[in-house]
């Protein structure tokens, strides 16, 4: 154990400082009112969105996600969800930058197949390099492979975001041992992106020293999403506090909390 | 003229600018981004950029996602 106590410093990603360590996705909600309420209850400052073709012939009064989750209040993190090649991911990021007035912070994900939504790390590495060279700040979704995580950091990604388990699966952290290695090697923030199912999963990730977690389905698919958003906020805060406090060591035998001395039968 | 718009074949008057296209689609004032033949056309150039027959145009916006 290190002699110095752990100090809290706020989450900093590519020079942007955030007081919340919970990142929230905006997919799968019933409507934009529910999205806005859940995002607010989560306390997040960093909100992911997808970039998609505009519906042609739509009602001009059709509500807009960015009215529910305004850019004036939240940092918007456009994703490349649904991209299966580096080329499509790079195009999507450029569209996002144009869409958001030159905003260059993106969440890169390049998927391998639609059954697992597992990252295609070969294409992810290619896209990351292109995007970093083009001036993007890249937060990258990847597998929980310590070698790949380090390589993405070397390329210049500003945050590396390994999966806890498959996107939308709610299985939590299936391989904490590799996550531990990734955390031990990291010089950029490591966030768990994907797989969080319940607040205890989020708390565990934070207790292990993750810089944050990104959650969508576990909030949106809860019976009461707004309440779950608040639960996730508390879990992330509790996990972070526990990481800073540093947990007690595990012992093989019991250790009484009440002193033996002074017992009436002594 | 014929263009490919968000993956669909569409007919428009020739010499159409991107601003005019956006107007015809009732998208004026909405937060969108436009790509022509896989190159971004910045908002500042919509009024002066004319489409050519066969162009492939993508118009995107932000929606919910994780």
Describe the structure in brief:
The complex is a heterodimer of chains A (266) and B (66). Helix content of chain A is 36%, strand content 16%. With 266 residues, chain A is α/β, with parallel strands linked by helices.
Structure keywords:
heterodimer, A: 266 residues, alpha/beta, 5-stranded parallel β-sheet, 3-stranded parallel β-sheet, 9 helices, B: 66 residues, mainly beta, 5-stranded mixed β-sheet, 1 helix, globular, Sulfur carrier protein ThiS (chain B), Thi_S (chain B)
What features would you describe in this structure?
The complex is a heterodimer of chains A (about 270) and B (about 70). Chain A is α/β, with parallel strands linked by helices and about 270 residues long. Chain A is built from 9 helices and 10 strands. Chain A has helices spanning about 30-40, 65-70, 85-100, 120-135, 145-155, 175-185, 200-205, 215-220, 225-245; strands at about 10-15, 15-20, 20-25, 45-55, 75-80, 105-110, 135-140, 160, 190-195, 210-215. In chain A, the strands form 3 sheets. Chain A has a 5-stranded parallel β-sheet. Chain A has a 3-stranded parallel β-sheet with strand order 6-7-8. In chain A, strands 1-2 form a two-stranded antiparallel ribbon. In chain A, a hairpin with a 2-residue loop joins strand 1 (about 10-15) and strand 2. In chain A, helix 1 (about 30-40) packs parallel to helix 9 (about 225-245), helix 3 (about 85-100) packs across helix 4 and helix 4 (about 120-135) packs parallel to helix 5 (about 145-155). The radius of gyration of chain A is 20 Å and the shape is globular. The mean pLDDT of chain A is about 95. Chain B is mainly beta and about 70 residues long. Chain B has a domain at about 15-55. Chain B contains 1 helix and 5 strands, in the order ββαβββ. A 5-stranded mixed β-sheet of chain B has the order 2-1-5-3-4, with no helix packed on it. In chain B, strand 1 and strand 2 form a beta hairpin. The longest helix of chain B is centred in the first third of the chain and has 7 residues, at about 20-25. The chains are: A alpha/beta (about 270), B mainly beta (about 70). Chains A and B meet through strand 4 and helix 3 of A and strand 3 and strand 5 of B.
């Amino acid at each position: 154990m290190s002699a110095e106590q752990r100090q809290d410093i706020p989450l900093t990603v590519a020079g942007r400082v955030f007081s919340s360590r919970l990142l929230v996705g905006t997919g799968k909600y019933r409507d934009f009112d529910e999205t806005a309420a859940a995002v607010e209850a989560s306390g997040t400052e960093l909100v992911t969105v997808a970039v998609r073709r505009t519906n042609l012939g739509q009602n001009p009064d059709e509500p807009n996600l960015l009215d529910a989750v305004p850019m004036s209040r939240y940092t918007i993190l456009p994703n490349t969800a649904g991209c299966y090649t580096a080329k499509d991911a790079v195009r999507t990021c450029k569209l996002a930058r144009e869409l958001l007035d030159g905003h260059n912070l993106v969440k890169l994900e390049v998927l391998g197949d639609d059954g697992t939504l597992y990252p295609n790390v070969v294409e992810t590495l290619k896209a990351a390099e292109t995007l970093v060279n083009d001036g993007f700040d890249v937060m990258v979704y990847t597998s929980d492979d310590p070698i790949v995580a380090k390589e993405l950091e070397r390329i210049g990604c500003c945050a590396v975001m390994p999966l806890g388990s498959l996107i939308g699966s709610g299985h939590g952290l299936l391989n904490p041992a590799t996550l531990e290695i990734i955390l031990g090697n990291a010089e950029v923030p490591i966030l768990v992106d994907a797989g969080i199912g319940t607040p205890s999963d989020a708390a565990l990730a934070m207790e292990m020293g993750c810089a944050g977690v990104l959650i969508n389905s576990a909030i949106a698919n809860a019976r009461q999403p707004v309440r779950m958003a608040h639960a996730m906020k508390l879990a992330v805060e509790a996990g972070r506090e526990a990481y800073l406090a540093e947990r007690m060591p595990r012992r093989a035998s019991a250790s009484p909390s009440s002193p033996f001395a002074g017992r009436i039968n002594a | 003229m014929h263009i490919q718009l968000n993956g669909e074949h569409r007919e428009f008057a020739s010499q159409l600018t991107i601003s005019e296209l956006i107007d015809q689609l009732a998208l004026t004032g909405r937060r969108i981004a436009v790509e022509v033949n896989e190159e971004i056309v910045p908002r500042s150039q919509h009024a002066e950029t004319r489409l050519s027959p066969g162009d492939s145009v993508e118009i995107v916006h932000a929606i919910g996602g994780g």
